[in-house]
Amino acid sequence: MSAMPTITYNFGYLDEQTKRMIRRAILKAIAIPGYQVPFASREMPMPYGWGTGGVQVTAAILGPDDILKVIDQGSDDTTNAVAIRSFFAATAGVRTTTRTKEATIIQTRHRVPETKLGPEQILVYQVPIPEPLRFLEPRETETRTLHALADYGLMHVKLYEDIARHGHIATTYAYPVMVAGRYVTDPSPIPKFDNPKLDDCPALQLFGAGREQRIYAIPPHTRVVSLDFEDHPFRVQRFDRPCALCGAEDVYLDEVILDDRGGRMFVCSDTDHCDQRRAAGHAGTMAPQGAPKGTSKP
Amino acid sequence: MYVAVKGGETAIRNAHALLAEARRGDPAVPEIGIDQIREQLALAVDRVMAEGSLFDRDLAALALKQARGDTIEAIFLLRALRTTLPRFGAALPVDTATMTLRRRISATFKDLPGGQLLGPTFDYTHRLLDPALATQTPAAPAPAAKATPKVSAKAASKAAGKAAPKPPMGETSTPAAPVPRVTDLLGDEKLIEPAPADTGAEPPDLTRTPLAFPADRATRLQNLARGDEGFLLALGYSTQRGYARTHPFVGEIRIGEVEVELFVEELGFAVPLGAVSVTECQMVNQFHGTAEAPPQFTRGYGLVFGQSERKAMSMALVDRAMRWEELGETLSAPAQDAEFVLSHSDNVQSTGFVEHLKLPHYVDFQAELGLVRLMRGAHAAASDALQDGDPE
Amino acid sequence: MASPPLAMGFADPARDAQRVFKALMSALARPGRKQRLAARLSPPPPLTPELAAVALTLLDFETAVWLDAPLAGAPAVSDFLRFHAAPRIIAAPHDADFALISDAARMPPFEVFAQGTPDYPDRATTLLVQVAKLATGALRLEGPGIAGRVGVSAAPLPDDFPARIAANAAGFPLGIDLFLIAPDAVVGLPRSVRLAEGN
């Protein structure tokens, strides 16, 4: 048979030309907070819908001195987070961590860490559908005009219809926000519990949607307001009990089914936050004795 | 006692090992070679090259092997490599009028200059499983190139159970000689709209520029050429069933090899890079005329890597349907809606997003669970209140 | 006579470009705040090493670049850019993705550059401006990326620079974005920055 061509990859997988293209898009995204910048998204070695936008953004900003943390559903150990982390460890040789405080870049799917982020950190969100108006108006040509005119009546009508039907707004995740008073923006499918963390955040927040070919950004210390009404102010979810492992209150919890007799427990969705608290001596009602790190295998 | 689930890394490692084992199958069966896939599953290789947008038979065969025969997975593998390859420039437009033909048919004329050349087609085979293929036999010699049209035409008519027709003129044509395109023959009489003029403008590159709407025809064709065969087939079919009917005739389908040339600035002339196999379909569609312009047939165009008539024909149908605005027709069907078609044609994108539903979504589900419980609580309270208020 | 040897580009393209980009990104995300910018290049004058490093980080064959008179007047500068980045060097500032400006005091009015469109505000020119000095100073700014207010000063700049920034902000989301590039440091002034009260 004929000879196979030699296949080689660049630092961080992407070639330099692709990185430049993504970097130019990131700069425009930062300059126009909340506006979705089109970019020529590439095929990545993981499927569309599995974080290709976030991975391209991370690959374009990542340097040899960075320390990378990857979470999915708040956890470092979910399989897709593991796969993305090992991708960058292999292609860029960067150091990785599970500790929020140590990381310089945190790539996330569906959560914002509970630990307050600092000015030296960058949060990269994986975004499936970047257009907050998409489910109200499927056509890109239409939604683009609505953004150009800052015509967000459609969104307010939708939220108000919720109130009329259910007595309250029935959107629990991917809850739309207004960024810097101009663009209505999709915060990615984080639970609305996390929305307040986007406001006046000291860290730069970058959003990558690979399949939909969009990058957008929220610069540090930018006003981010969840849409609401005077008579129906925005409210986050509340849990009526603390984390069963670390006792944390005011955090987002995962519901774990323990048996088929209705047994349930609620634990931190942010696994690092839970680990750090337990290491510091906090314990919940179902904390295992003598295993404060919670790293043992089941 | 519950502890947070760990072990994602181990689970992934194990899954990779199991995949490698499943890919190999029974180790007692000899491992399949890339050369065997390239030579004997050539149409699968062609589809992977076409939708992977990369003409390299060995890499496509490798991708098919690695993907365990899953075409879309193989296309994805090829695309993920292609995207990292450096660009040296854009080739000159290929001239399909000069291609070396392996197959060339027209449905609009019984006979025409250059003839009808059946070539290697399933068209007139009886779809009966052939037990002879279940055993390994030495390959039978193929008919000589010059005799191909004759043999094929006779075999075809025989297979179709009809009396052999008058031998077509094609019998005397040598495949290597330039064969005029049917659309050029119609064009000489101005019976068909002219092909769009070559403006000399740099062609769009969808892999380097994000798709934006409205998309020009060059962009649409590029998108369709990479688009999923099944998706385009369904859309093309829908136009035949009345969803934006365009009265199509196959003006011509030609399959063969065409030279690719690159103009080198430093040399001041074009140098040949080699040949690629393509399938071209020129669809001749419903005439169109206005008060100013006399009636003319219109065009739908399809061009794909390798041998794939199904894809090239579907592409030509959908291309024509999407030209509704330019031709003064009304928008009434999905196949005409460029924004809909182009946004959903890419199978690497669509398979990724459909399959991403496998990923954990428990954080958002928890949010919905909380809301449904809340609403059920409110509903129950409201029903109770209603019952309490009922006079006994 | 043989032409003089071409100045070198990045020694380590992937890592050098990443470091420069990180400085640019931080500068734009925190307008008015100086970010360190190290450049180990010796480009032909009047291109400074820092502006050269920024150019090699952002420009390539997919970008159109406009050069101000002193840069356009130095063929060695165009040769350097073409060899290392291959941008399209164009004469019309309105079509430029990037504008390279060496004579900051005489930079053209912002309006001559692409401002973006209401549908695509990102299709606007980014100005890369060489300055001699950057410091915290009297130009008080606020907006996204700034906690409270920040003061910046740079020299040389046109006298009406504050008014230009104010007018640029007034057109948001349209407008140009600008980097002030000094030896060892860069400051970003995206279109989102506004003059604070009391300037």
TrEMBL record, chain A:
Sequence similarity: Belongs to the PhnJ family.
Protein name: Alpha-D-ribose 1-methylphosphonate 5-phosphate C-P lyase
Native source organism of the sequence: Aquabacter spiritensis
GO biological process, one term: organic phosphonate catabolic process
One Pfam family linked to the record: PhnJ
Reaction equations catalysed: alpha-D-ribose 1-methylphosphonate 5-phosphate + AH2 + S-adenosyl-L-methionine = alpha-D-ribose 1,2-cyclic phosphate 5-phosphate + methane + 5'-deoxyadenosine + L-methionine + A + H(+)
EC number in record: 4.7.1.1
Gene Ontology terms for molecular function: 4 iron, 4 sulfur cluster binding; alpha-D-ribose 1-methylphosphonate 5-phosphate C-P-lyase activity; metal ion binding
Region Disordered: start-end pairs: 279-298
Record InterPro entries: PhnJ
Function: Catalyzes the breakage of the C-P bond in alpha-D-ribose 1-methylphosphonate 5-phosphate (PRPn) forming alpha-D-ribose.
Alphabetized UniProt keyword annotations: 4Fe-4S, Iron, Iron-sulfur, Lyase, Metal-binding, S-adenosyl-L-methionine
Automatic annotation (TrEMBL), chain B:
Pfam hit, one: PhnI
Biological process terms in GO annotation: organic phosphonate metabolic process
Tree of life domain: Bacteria
Low complexity compositional bias, start-end: 139-164
Region (Disordered): 139-181
Alphabetical list of InterPro entries matching this protein: PhnI
Identification of the protein by name: Alpha-D-ribose 1-methylphosphonate 5-triphosphate synthase subunit PhnI
Lineage: Bacteria, Pseudomonadati, Pseudomonadota, Alphaproteobacteria, Hyphomicrobiales
TrEMBL record, chain C:
One BP annotation, GO: organic phosphonate metabolic process
Pfam families: PhnH
SUPFAM superfamilies: PhnH-like
Name of the protein in its database record: Alpha-D-ribose 1-methylphosphonate 5-triphosphate synthase subunit PhnH
Organism per entry: Aquabacter spiritensis
